[in-house]
Structures are given as structure tokens and as C-alpha cells.
Amino acid sequence: MIAINNLHKSFGDLEVLKGIDLNVEKGQAVVVIGPSGSGKTTFLRCLNILETPTAGTVAIDGHMADFSKPLPKKQIMGFRKQSAMVFQHYNLFPHMTALENVMEGPVTVQKIDRAEARAKAEELLTKVGLKEKMNEYPFQLSGGQQQRVGIARALALEPKVMLFDEPTSALDPELVGEVLQVMKELALEGMTMVVVTHEMRFAKGVADEVLFMDAGRIIERGTPQEIFDHPKEERTKQFLNLIQNADTI
Amino acid sequence: MKFHRNGLAKMYLNSIFTNPERLERLLDIAQSSFLPLLEGAIQYTIPLTLISFTIGLILATLTALARISTVKFFQIIARIYVSIIRGTPLLVQLSILFYGLPTVGITLEPFTAAILGFSLNVGAYASEVIRAAILSIPKGQWEAANTIGMSYSQALKRIILPQASRVSIPPLSNTFISLVKDTSLASFILVTEMFRRAQEIAAFNYEFLLLYSQAGLLYWIFCFLLSLVQGRLENRFDRYVSKA
User: Which of B136, B148, B169 to mutate to test the interface with A (most CBs of A within 10 A)?
Assistant: First the structure.
């Protein structure tokens, strides 16, 4: 489903991604972990071209983007359609209700009939457990509810791949569960997902594959058991130790 | 000098309160000039304000977009435009348009020249308001719009400008209210708007204090009504913002 080849990204002199290669099969949930500054968020943003990679290729479901030369706008927009992004800070549209947020993509971009888009949006909001909150504005919702609207908004576009950028990092601890639950259901339904997260329990429970990134490279990859129970690389062990220590303080 | 002025003020008031005929004359004039003044407002002051503000807002939005665009050429054009308009008096601009341009063969009707002048003026001042309002919208809103597949113009129209308009209502109301009063400068280029009517009537009966005060009162009433509209607009746009 996703084929990434030698992906590079620099901000000026700072090289953030130093050659990423990755294949993700259809229906797989891939979790990316790593210390802050490791480039994992940049990597995810490159898959939706919110950052334009400096070199390399990405193909999603056969749609290929080659970043060795500047891409025309049309191609960027076409490529973006393959995936949808869920943001750390939700980035809901504050001037629209939950329902309008979810309908916006289908109506404005895909030009789907309003009534049809509305029915679909209602269905999606019901699915993420927000049937009762459809007509509320984002400021009237809790963080966890806002993030679930964010997920529904992304799903409304019927993307082939869902990208999650630390979707629970901005949430109060008691609200993390409801968002992870929705994500878990998606994974079980067979959605192809790339998730950047610090939620190790989610990674252990849901991921088909875990990637450990550091300093712009994928250092180690494997099943959750391989990475969490038998890490091979020294840096992976250090990182996991730090996280476990933080948990036991 | 001071004594002299006080003396005159006393005479004016005395003449009103001790001389019934004088009072009657003033009331007569006030009454008979009210309709011509109002007519000037309806015929010119209000249309000048509404048309210039509409054209000005469009111009301002385009200028703001040019200023934040990545194309250097657009940025420079917008900067020069704003700099010239903000750096020269409105009265000078109107004079150039109406009295100056005929020299090079461009003759404008008074009303046309006024519309042009005021629109250019609003365009320059409001562009800075709109630019600031657009820049105040978090980058994440652009990203969310992009990620659901919106083009630049779709993101602008559906996501950014609706939020930016909320932020810009108070400063744009300032611009609008200033414009109402600035239209009195059109009297200088022969537009018979409200203030020019007052001048004309006063030139005939010499009651300058009365007529200019009357005109001033009408401007004040207009601006007061506008500030009520501003309050309503703000409430409307605040419905999606936490009151906390």
C-alpha cells in the first residue's frame, strides 16, 4: 500500500530525514516511536506533503510522487487524496460544528451532494461515539471529543491510509483511552495506518509493526514483541529504558 | 481677545433667549434645512460610504493577499500602493483625481472621483487589518484545510477568511466609521453631500454655527447606529468562541 524509497528532508542545513525506506502492506498498522527530534513527525508529514521532501519517492496505492524534482500543484493535490491526517492539536475548524467539520471535505473538495455528505458525516460521528455532540462547536467539546471529530473528519474523505501525528499527546490522561479505542477499532477493521505516538501500550496491543526512529533514520523495526521484548540495537534499548523509568517514577 | 469671544458667545445666547423672533428664525432654518441635509446624506454620503467601502474591502483583501504571497512582485506592488496612500493626505489625493487629472486628459465626474479616492484609501488602510487578521489564524488551520484536499483558494474562502473576519470586525468598523466622516471631504471636489449642503445653506443665511452643528449631529447619529451594527456583528461571530 505504501512504498517509501530513500526519503530525505532538510530544513536549510539541518537534515531531518536521512534516507527512509519503508513498505507498508494494506491493512497494516505501523507505529513509529522514537525520541523527540528524531524526525518521526516530519516523516509522517512528508507522507501527506505537509512538508515537501527534498529527495526520494513515496507511492501510496500506486500513486507515485518523486521528490527529486518540484511537483506540480495538481499532482500534490492528487497525491494528498490517498491519505488523511489526524493532528496532535486536532486542528478542527472552530467556526464549524462537529458535523460541518466532517462534511467540509466531502462537500467542498469532493463536491458530494450535501444531503449525502450529511448522512455520511452523521454515520461517522456515530461511529466515533459523538452522535449526541454533532451540532456542538469545537470549543464546546473536550479534547478527546475534538480528536474523535478529527478522526471522523479524516475518515470522511475515504482515504486509503490514515496518518496519526501524536493524536493523544495533547490530551488529559483520562481522555486518552477513548481516542485510542477508536483507533484500535479502525485497525481491526483493516484500515492501513501509520501512527506516531508515545503510547507504548497502544503500540504493543495494536501495531503490526513498530519502527524505532532516531536522528532521521529508522534504527530498528519489527513486531511489537521483537522491539519491546528483544530490542537488538543499543539506542532502542536506551530509549525503551528511559520510557519505562519514567513510568515507574 | 478672550473677553471679546466671551462677549460674542453671550450675545449669541442672549439673542436667542431674549429675542423670540431670533429664536423663531433659527428654528425655522433648522427645520427647513433638515430635509436638504438628509437628502445630501441619502443621495451622496451614504452611497459614497457603502460603495467605497465595498470596493475598498475587495481591494484590501487582494492587497493583503499580495502582501503575504510568496511572489516578490506582488509584495512590492502592494507595499508601494499602501505606502503612497497612507503617506499622502486624502484631500490631496482627491484633488489630484478631480482637479489634477484633467490636465492629462482624464476628466472624472465629482462622484466618480470621490468613489475612486475613498476606495483606494479604504483599500490601503483595511489591507493592513486584513493582513494581520489572516496572519493571526494558526498555521494548523491551513494544514488541516490542505490535508482534506483543499486548494489555496478553497482554504482561504472556507477556512481562513471566515475566521479572519471575526478578528477584523472591530478594526474594520473603525475604518468604516472614519469613512463616513471622511466623505465630507468630497465637498471639496463639488460632490453635494451632506456637509456641502450645510455649507451652501449657511453661505446663504450666514447661520454657520447652526448648520455645521446640525451636520455634525447627523454624522454622529450615523456613526452611533453603525457602532450598534458592529456590536451585533461581533455577537454573531462570537457564537463559536468560548465565552470563558
Answer: B148
Residue A203: all three cell numbers together: 503500540
In this predicted model, what pLDDT tens digit does every residue of A80-109 receive, in sequence order? 999 999 999 999 999 999 999 999 999 999
Q: Which residues of B186-204 are buried (b: 16+ CB within 10 A; e: fewer)?
A: bbbbebbbbbbbbbebbee
Q: Backbone phi, then psi, for A139, in 5-degree steps?
A: -65, -15
CA distance B147 to chain A (A): 6
Question: Tens of pLDDT along A206-236?
Answer: 999 999 999 999 999 999 999 999 999 999 9
CA A100 to CA A104: how far, in whole Å?
Answer: 6
Instruction: Find, in chain A, the residue whose alpha carbon is nearest to that of B161.
Output: A95
| Residue A19 parent element (H or E) | strand A14-24
Mean pLDDT over each residue of chain A, to the nearest integer: 93
From chain B residues 223-242, the ones with a CB under 8 A of any chain A CB are: 239-242
User: In angstroms, what CA-CA distances link B73 with A16, A73, B82, B111, B131?
Assistant: 32, 21, 14, 32, 17
Given an 8 Å threshold on Cβ–Cβ distance, is A105 in contact with B146? no
Q: Which amino acid is at B20?
A: P
ipTM surpassing 0.85:
yes
Q: What is the pLDDT of residue B160?
A: 97
